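Minutes, project check-in
Item: structure for the 705-residue chain
Input as provided by the requester:
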Amino acid sequence: MHGRPRIAPTKEDQEASSLKAAKLRDLQSQVLNFHHNKIYTKEAVEISAKLLESNPEHYTGWNYRKLAVQYLLDQQSENGVDSNSIQSILDEELRVVENALKKNFKSYGAWHHRKWVLSKGHSSIDRELRLLGRFQKLDSRNFHAWNYRRFIAGLRKIPDEEELQYTTDMIYDNFSNYSAWHNRSVLLSNLLGKREKGYHDKEKVFGEEYEFVRNALFTDPDDQSGWFYHLWLLDQTLKREPVLLSSWPPHGSNLCLSVDGSLNDRQPLPVLHFQSKASTFPLILYFSEAVEGVSSSTVTFECKYHAGDDFTWMPLSANKFGFSQAWLTYLKFPNEVHSLEAFPVKVTVAHAAGITSSSGMPCSQSCHISFTVVVPSDDREHSELQTTRRISWKEENIKSCTTQSLEGDILRSLCELEITKENKPTTTKWSMETISNEIAHCQELLSTTNCKIGKLTLARLLMARNTLISYGNPHAGTEVHYEDVLALYRDLMKMDPAHICHYEDEYSLVLLKQLTSNIGSLMKHCYQYQESSSPSMNPYLCVRLNGLSLSRLGSMEQLLWVQMLDLSHNKLRTIEGLEALQLLSCLKLNNNRLCSFTALEPLKTLKSLEALDISYNEIGAHSIDTRRYLCSSPLTHAVGMDWNFKKFTDEDVKLKGHWDAYLLFKDLNLSQLEIAGNAVVNDRLKAFLSKLMPSLKWLDDEECC
């Protein structure tokens, strides 16, 4: 561990270790007996001390001592004994903890127990500071000691300015001190948040901090501690309130709701078609960062014929705290409303306060999305005759969208529509100058050394400047440095193969940002899919991102309108992000690196999905697949009791291991599925899926019965 070679123990070492283990087992047995029987005698407490001084990681031992000490303190209070006796009990606890820390300075249980003793209020804080001084001389980077120091500083009410100076001294003593840099970020956040004297001007403070950390970076570029602090400063420099990036339907668009999906040439152009038998369509809001608080009170609607005033907003791919970049609700028009008249719809986002980012920034500036909806008279007889069309993905059915074509006009309008001008926040001059200055310094450093984390930081800085340019001037175009950033990540993959997966992910995000950054680059990947046998049906708007070595998905805010997506022949292990593409009907994911059905969980939210190709992946190829257990097993109570798994397995024991396939496909309404080429596939699984999805018409090129 940590570069120390493993040495085989001698026979004498093994005998000594066995004797020590036997003694520990005996002490542990006695302490557990005391704990279960609530024995708090002097002898019992002394035995627990011996155990903890020998093995500080025995959490039950520390909990037993808390109960024992509290029992003794309660006895002292009942007998009216003076404070010296109480002080003696607590001092003994501090002595036991100190001996335990000498054994293992990184014992969580020991440090937690010491905090508990100090919280009783009878111990000397100054003595604790002196003890910390001795400990931190032995290990100045130990985060347990720094965490305890923050606790002690709070008890003693030491000003944050004094503690900040302490971190400065410790960093000057050894700038490779991760814990000191971290404590510095905590203290500066407090000082700036309270607007203490000398900390009113955030720009001045951060300017001085950039200069301070730069000294460490140029002294030893390969030491990562200063770079992590630099990354925190970069995050603070870019911190801004969340904004609405895109929506579907987009602002300024014309939407035609059809029952059967047939073309209607009487609508104003360009027009977006959406097929819905219930006259319902999704409304998607995509923010610049994950937010919470999207509700009927913060987002309002103005529409003459919309049925219902209360909307239920659902976060797509929310984290455990309920924050999400993409939010979804449904707008429904009454069935009796059928007219060629275009009904205007106005959506006001941030109508009232309540939308907040995960970084704590409020979305304070309201914006508007306006579009029109046409609900033409539906031909029920015609719609009943329509049959589900099979997607062949043949090249003759896929045509590129030229700028002169109707679909080209639609795509161009989708990419050029702005939400509202006032929604785009201006970039402060300080932010832009700071990022540009750091780019220059980073390039200067890399001109003299081939530093991995320096290159990673430069890539992040260049992308940060891209973001600021797009905020500051929406019409600035893409004069940014995508190729430079991609070159940096290619270098990092060669220099640091141990972390190649991370670099591939970042490379993929930058590449997708480049491809979707303007209409010219995006149009190169846009197509229309039209079956020659169904010329009266609306063609699918298709995007092909196949064969790009993508390992991660991003820039989904630019693709909310996509109906058909080809992601085949990439390196995808997850499809997180696709849940925002609510119009997606056909998805091609063959020849990727998907290892389990769990990796496809985002598909469960795509109600329009009809055709799915996940053939020739790695599903079932790995004996241990940790991602499979990221979703709740039906053997637990987390997924409810209505799953009816036995109904579809016919008591086939070998199918009972496919509960993750059941949890995925039971929520899908697929008509076409390609699954061949995965290790998990056999005839029993195919029969299981056919039974599970009655809507399935084709499975691996074969028509289902």
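Outcome recorded: The longest strand covers residues 280-292.
No further action items on this chain.
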